[in-house]
Amino acid sequence: MLIQLSSAALMAAEVAEEHAEGTPAIVYGAVIFGIFMVLMFATMAFTSLGHRHEAVAEHVDPQRQHPNKHDHGQGIPE
User: Which segments carry the region annotation Disordered (predicted)?
Assistant: First the structure.
């Protein structure tokens, strides 16, 4: 299996080398740089999304089957 995988990778590299001779390396670098810039701007756009609204206290429901432990002692006593 490993020999088949390595021979397939070698064949793909040879085919890619034949097709890539006309394209300069700066084009690949510019495309990759552009992709990373788009991802960075998308990350920056959604950075403060969690800070838009004030946190609201959760309603304590004693009938809840799995109550969270963040109700500061107002839930079902254990």
Answer: 57-78
pLDDT per residue as tens, the chain (78 positions): 778 889 988 888 887 766 666 778 899 899 999 999 999 999 998 887 777 777 777 666 666 666 556 656 555 555
Length of the chain: 78
- Is residue 70 within 8 A of residue 58, CB to CB? The reply is yes
Q: What is the DSSP string of 41-64?
A: HHHHHTGGGGGSS---PPPP-TT-
Residue 76 · residue 62 · CB < 8 Å: yes
